[in-house]
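Sorry, can you check?
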Amino acid sequence: MKVKEHELSRLAYDLRKDVVNMIMAGNGGHIGGDMSVMETLVTLYFDQMHISAENMTDPNRDYFVLSKGHAVEAYYAVLAKKGFLDINEVIQQFSQFGSAYIGHPNNQLPGIEMNSGSLGHGLPVCVGMALAAKMDDRASRVYTVMGDGELAEGSIWEAAMASHQYKLDNLCAVVDRNHLQISGNTEDVMGHEDLHERFRSFGWHVIDVVNGNSVSELHVAFEEAKSTKGQPTVLIANTVKGKGSSVMEDKVSWHHHVPSKEEYEQIMKDFEERKEML
């Protein structure tokens, strides 16, 4: 895994560049959350999931829903690298009038299972997907990524109860725990207290990923999730909003922000330096 880990860690920084170029071209986007979730998406699509542009009609494929759909720019970048989309087309058309590359996942595009971004919907839909796979005796695993601010939605916890009730061990959720949402620190807006214990009390197997921007730690956690039987698994991935550049890191103002020319140049320089340090 060490060689692959190195390659995927470097890939995450290349895809961050695509995201920033997308946001610059479209003059908008949720850049902070794109950066915090990038390693999760890269690990899922290039290390974990049985999914490709060629097997999307195979019912035994794995399924993914980006519940925090406002991080769509990172999702588009990963899907393009995986062969579903053309990155040049995405960058040129992102957030343009009449474009399919809108600011939240659009299931009219290849590789996207459902429109998402209305927070609180991803996990409930994935419960249905995972339950259907169980009923049909399919090998599919179902994954979703949620934001930590999103966990204030009551539908999340209804879905969490149902997941335990039906012993959906083919379901794995990830919480992108960057501690920031549009209106401030999550603990000031709607505190989660002991998030590990909260999910555990709902009957989930809980894995704390200390560095949620580490491909190697995510790999180990996802492998543990695969081996967990009789209950769903959630990864609490402790990430950094705006990961990759000191211009953006851990700053709530970068939840939704378009870099200036000077910021753009510094961010791209930071990405390259971080990549070379790997």
Notes: The chain is about 45% helix and 10% strand. The mean pLDDT is 95. The radius of gyration is 18 Å. The longest strand covers residues 171-177.
